[in-house]
Amino acid sequence: MASAGTNIIGGAMFILPALYILNIEDVSFLEMAIPIVLGGVLGVFLATVFRRYFCEEMDGVYPFPSGSAAAEVLESDEGSKAHIMLVSGAVALVYDFVLNSLGWWQELLTTTTFHWGQVLADKYKLVFSLDNDAALLGIGYFTGLRYAAIIAAGSFFSWLVCIPVAYYLGGDHTMVVGGETMLLANAPVDAVFSQYVRHIGIGMLAMSGVVVRVVKRAVADLFSKGASSSGMLLRTQQDLPMTQIVFGSLLMTILFAVFFHVMCAESLTQTVIAFVLVMLFALMLSVVGISSIAFTGNEPVSGMTIFIIIVSAVVMGGAGMVGKTGIIAILMMASFLCATLAVSGNFMSELKVAYITGATPKKMQQWQLVSIVLAGVVSVGVVFLMHHAYGFTGEGALAAP
Question: Cα dihedral sign for 14, 302, 210, 236?
């Protein structure tokens, strides 16, 4: 239950400050909270749909580094495991203190620190960097050599192949960096990565084969009255009934469509388009997020949300949603989907802990629904407090990138 706050907070902290940055302050607390809560609940349902595939059927294939680490802690006793954890925790504490507090060396080691590295970056757009944070070293250990090598290969491909290609093919393309418009050829390497190459990686994570397979099984479970019923399953295999999951997921999406129609839409067509968009994005990108969590322990929620905003803005703009109303509409869709993706990915890691330790997934799903509603309301309240205490624009404001 405690983790639900960090699971759902992305929908609030990534999106809602944009309203204040754009000087839109007539959106009420309730109007902000509704899409966050509905999206969070949908995220729980989607994680439940995919649980059996990712946690049971693919056990041993996906390393789930964060979930495995949590399970190790829960299964340790006062013997050798606890001793190793205490010693390694102390080593990491000292390491991070020296790194972050004393600053004896930089956390991010990069070739641009050296003159020859700066020449490589300026002339050939080649940059190599290494984050040596203790937490990442620990995640690498749990991920294992094979998947760590795959992730590293993806990083090399992004930075040493995709970025130079982007400069070569799109040098005359204009982009905005720090509020300044410039040619891509003159843009810094990290800006090209964040605005273009990063989204290529997110797209590569999409796994439609997984979606098709899981949806087919969900439909079979929905109409099955045989051995798949919860009464015939082991306690450690019991989820919420598939009828509740399917109809609950549809209900959350329909309720958001109703909210969208009342608050933002000017026609039924706009509402239907928004309904189709959020349903497709929720289903497809939740698999992307869960896959990322399963491989690396991290989820590219902010990158996926930016992608959602871009596509939704183009589509809904074509449907006639413009101006302030259009901005609010896109941000409400983004907050709903961002909460969905953040919850589905992170909750799946917790369901993996349940599988490893022998907990009952159904119980976790029930209490996660309760805590998501509470955390969703509280997270919006925190954004309100931060806005009134510090603000998101002007001198001394919170950055909210």
Answer: negative
